[in-house]
């Protein structure tokens, strides 16, 4: 359903606040995920090695950071693929008579002006 904002300025600020909120949530989410991964690695190092606390802490945080970078990269790649697919599907052929978008790229009749180029 399309939104019809009555006050564009108020709408802009509402959008900006929403974006800031999502940005904060996003950072919080990443921080929690980072700590969760670091915690798991730290636990693993505690069980399987006899390193001192500093070494375990540093190694687990560094590994978690690298893991997050890799996950971010994968999610970016997954994001890019469907976007390019959607863009490809969105490409419409314009009517040669009136220039309006045809229903499909393979359409042979215009729904707007009624032009017909069936062969
Ligand atoms: Zn047309």
Report on this structure.
The chain is mainly alpha-helical. The chain has a domain at 9-90. The chain is built from two helices and no strands. It has helices at 8-48, 53-90. Helix 1 (8-48) crosses helix 2. The longest helix has 41 residues, at 8-48. The chain starts with 7 loop residues before the first helix and ends in a 29-residue tail after the last helix. Bound molecules: zinc ion (ZN).
Question: Which of globular, elongated, flat, extended, rod-shaped describes the shape?
Answer: elongated
Residue runs with pLDDT of under 50 for 5 or more positions: none
Small molecules held by this entry: zinc ion
Number of DSSP helical runs:
2
Order of helices and strands: HH
Give the N-to-C terminal Cα separation.
39 Å
On the 0-100 scale, what is the average pLDDT? 83
Rg to the nearest angstrom? 26 Å
- Helix content estimate: 55-70%
């Amino acid at each position: 359903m399309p939104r019809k904002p009555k006050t564009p300025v108020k709408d802009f600020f509402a959008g900006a606040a929403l974006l800031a909120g999502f940005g904060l949530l996003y950072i919080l989410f990443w921080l929690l995920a980072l700590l969760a991964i670091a915690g798991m690695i730290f636990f693993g190092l505690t069980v399987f090695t006899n390193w001192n606390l500093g070494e375990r802490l540093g190694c687990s945080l560094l590994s978690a950071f690298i893991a997050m970078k890799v996950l971010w990269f994968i999610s970016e790649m997954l994001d890019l693929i469907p976007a390019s697919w959607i863009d490809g599907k969105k490409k419409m052929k314009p009517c040669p008579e009136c220039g309006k978008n045809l229903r499909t790229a393979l359409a042979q009749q215009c729904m707007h002006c009624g032009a017909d180029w069936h062969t």
